[in-house]
Amino acid sequence: MVWVWIVSLNHITNEVQIKDPSSQVPARNLPKNCQSSVRELWSISYNKKSMKPPPFELFQKQLRSALNHLYDPEYLRQSPLAGLLHVANQFDTPMLLQRILTEAIEGFHPKPDISVKSQAWNTYHILLFRYSQQLSQDEVAMQLGVSPRQLAREQEVALEMLAFSLWEQYHLSLETGNEARETDTPAASVEDTDKMAGDLTWLSEKQQDHPADLSEAIRIVLELVNPLILRHAEKLTISLDENLPSVAMHPVGLRQALLSLMNVTINHAMDGEVTIQATTTEQTILVQIEGKGKTAHMPSPAEDDESLKIVRVLMDLCQGKLDVTAGVDNFKVALSLPVLKPVTVLVIDDNADLLQLMDRFVMETRYKLVQTRVPGEALNLVEKYSPHIIILDVMMPEIDGWQMLSKLRQHPLTSQIPIVICTIVAQEELAYALGASAYIHKPVTRERLLSTLDLLLAQAPPKSH
Description:
Blueprint: E1 6-10, E2 15-19, E3 28-29, H1 38-46, H2 55-68, H3 73-78, H4 80-84, H5 93-106, H6 119-132, H7 137-144, H8 148-169, H9 174-179, H10 193-199, H11 201-206, H12 214-232, E4 235-240, H13 251-267, E5 273-280, E6 284-292, H14 301-318, E7 321-326, E8 330-338, E9 343-348, H15 352-361, E10 367-372, H16 378-385, E11 389-392, H17 401-410, E12 419-423, H18 428-433, E13 438-441, H19 446-459
Parallel strand pairs: 4-5, 9-10, 9-11, 11-12, 12-13
Antiparallel strand pairs: 1-2, 2-3, 5-6, 6-8, 7-8
Helix pairs in contact: 2-8, 6-8, 7-8, 12-13, 13-14
């Protein structure tokens, strides 16, 4: 009889177990002095027909390379792990892969009742210090009070356990492993700029529907690069204007641009300072990121250009601007980002539930609703808020909506404002005959509401205040 052993790692307690699937024998703990034999057990179970390196070893090799470049977006984008962990060919592939790896490391955080002197804590600290915080082997050895040689051995076991945890979590098969490339570095070339712009066109098409909060984007990016800042820089200074307006750029695109810029800037700020400033004008938000280093360390212009390529593409898509200034001991980038001007929409409808629903529909968009259930207030609200579009119901108790439409079309304040008839009455032809610009039949859906507003705005650009 041939026994097949299944190895599983409990990454909370770092307890290694071997289970015999063909029997009801309870799981038995693997002795601590045998933990380093995980690789051999895997080879016996999954590599009986070939003398080639086991797929798991190749996966572990690729994992090590990705962890060593955990804060390098371009490297992570091309890493074979992106495909194996199902995040390849996405705009935010580097961020997704980085999150998977850091969360996998955090998964090794021991339970509160585990002794701080246990092997579980030691394994977690090795992964945390060596990869999440990007400390050198000598620095980690000093932190843990062990020799560099001992650390190297224990780091190999910790990496093996992390690799096995991800391997099981993503159900990676033998075939998947054989398809991976026999290399620990991604291809040197990157996509042509024109192709990159084509791949990212969807960002420019959807950026108006998904305005970006700059303060939130900066917070997220700083959280991602914090280990890199702790590793390379001595000081981080942030200065943001209060109540920054929304940016006319998709949040995913803005975060990626900031992440790439921070990665380049931090590399120029060895033992120095990184500063971030954001100020506003009427039309733009100016974001300045500067790195001043004390240690002589100058990445090559070619390295900088490669990392900045995607930022330039993103700025072209959102009609922004990137300026770069590089000196002997400092590096500065300035982003001019377009401000997303709010579009005011006056809604006249006596149905309070519908008004509340429309409010939810336009959340996190450029549209801001001014609502009234009293048609007689319409002209006063128009004079006060200068709406770009009016939405009008025709079935209201105080006044006939058709009469209201005619009145608005004849009044000088509203004669040129697009009016949308939104009603349960199926009289679309009459609506257009009386001067409506668009018609929405109730019940209203978010998609129909936003597409109608977008269409009217494209036909008649919003006026400036």
